[in-house]
Give the backbone structure.
Amino acid sequence: MKSYEECADILKAVAHPIRLEIIMRLDEEDGCNVSKIQNNLGIPQSTISQHLKILKNANILSSKRKGTTVCYKVINQELLDVISLIKAI
C-alpha cells in the first residue's frame, strides 16, 4: 500500500489537463512516441517531453528505446480507473 505522500505525488503528477490527456491517449494507443503525441495534441515537442518526464518520474509511465525513438506506455493501470471515475462524476 502506498503512503499518503506517494499518493499525493501521483495526484500532483496528473493534476494537469495535458498530462491527463497524454495518459489517456497513450492507453488508447497502447503506447507511442513523442512525435505521435505531438501530432495528436498539437503542442510543442519540448512541452510534451516535460510532461512525459513528470509522469515517468511518478512511475505512471515507462519508456523503451526503439532505435532513435522512445516509446512511452502507461504502467499504472489503476490510475486509468481513477481517471475514468473522475471523468464520470
Observations:
- The chain is about 65% helix and 15% strand.
